[in-house]
């Protein structure tokens, strides 16, 4: 059994009536789950899985921030199976792609239905988890087993499933507990959850709250889209540890009431996933005097994050842009040049992560795994595709060396968007470029070579946007569509993105 599963068992035994999971929906209804319920329901579902499933293939868990998603996660692990969380915002065609790659024996519908012959309905899950059942501890996943698989944007247009083992997760959690001034034994913090469970940022709040015996206050998508409800939910949360992308904190900061009065207990902001602007840190220092702000960095492939820095006012005075921090114990950073040579401190190159939280590779994608992952002296390594350099013992992030971007905290491969746009009616070719404002990516523009030029670009763009919803999540759909007779090309035959950007500025 992994260390975190032991901890969950211990907390459930010691504080069965304490609330673990708390969420308010847009109708004002609340969804709660106590520690005792979490453990006992997970055990019953695990027992059912043990008795009814023939294989140990990872289980897909479909839903949106329902407390039963967590019950299903833990049940899968207790029954010796990894799990793959899929949020309802993932379009049908993409879910099919994930299911095609994973070939799961079971799809658990945790609060939302997914029609498939392998699905277990929500109703059935409720029935099983309120019945009887026991599971032997020997059945649980061990450290070297796959614990979860999170799918990220892949340049071919098909998402890649990053496989994280129990050991990777334990190693991440042990370090995560020390971020800022750390979480003391018996502290029972209240974490805030912003990211859907199909994004690895959510692993930070979910597993740190599970490990520390705390509480998770979950913000569903509808609440996040309504500033008034969002501020109300935050006020009620009593949260003291914040986990989000910097973009989400910026949205909250645009509301004047987002301050210490709203969240009097707040003592730590943990950020990951995209550049943390100095201006955001300064505003947080102003609005939440005494609270710590921690910047962390890492890809899904190395279990959420591997570097951290406490962004004090002194750090903000000294560095702009901020460093992403120092490497965690058990991991190592290297900066490599174009010939894969190691570069000295101060020189900029590709960031390589080695160590005990690096994934064992992409699920059923040997070629893509071989391209991105390697092993050196028995230690797993990952080529991030990020550009950066080391200075003063800190890692500094300088963007990507390929076509992956971050938009509002979401990881997107531009080629993923392009390949999916090319599936739409009348689209012969597509090229997508990110649009920046004040150094930050704010939207995507698609250049389309249609089989026939439309009479109204506006209407044609609307139609493509609507059709794209079957293939791409909302955040990957370009805001603007431009129709061209032909695409400008570079010498090596690729879409010339610089020329396309220049075209927009004409
Ligand atoms: P994801 O796998 O969605 O977590 O995305 C990982 C990518 O997000 C990294 O490879 C970086 O390009 C970017 N990223 C993560 N953390 C940071 C950070 N603190 N600052 C800047 N970029 C970041």
Please supply descriptive tags for the structure shown above.
Rossmann fold, 506 residues, Luciferase, domain 3, 25 strands, alpha/beta, binds adenosine monophosphate, single chain, globular, 9-stranded mixed sheet
Describe the structure concisely for a colleague.
With 506 residues, this protein is an alpha/beta fold.
Please characterize this protein's 3D structure.
The chain has 506 residues and is of the alpha/beta class. 31% of the residues lie in helices and 27% in strands. The chain has 16 helices and 25 strands. A nine-stranded mixed sheet has the order 2-1-10-9-11-12-13-14-15, sandwiched between helices. Strands 16, 17, 18, 19 and 20 form a five-stranded antiparallel sheet that branches. The protein has a four-stranded parallel sheet with strand order 4-3-5-6. Helix 7 links the parallel strand 9 and strand 10 (215-218). Helix 1 (3-14) packs across helix 7 (201-212). The chain is globular, with a radius of gyration of 23 Å. The model has no long low-confidence stretch (mean pLDDT 95). The structure holds adenosine monophosphate. Adenosine monophosphate is lined by residues 152, 200, 272-276, 295, 297, 299-300, 324, 384, 386, 397, 400, 406, 411.
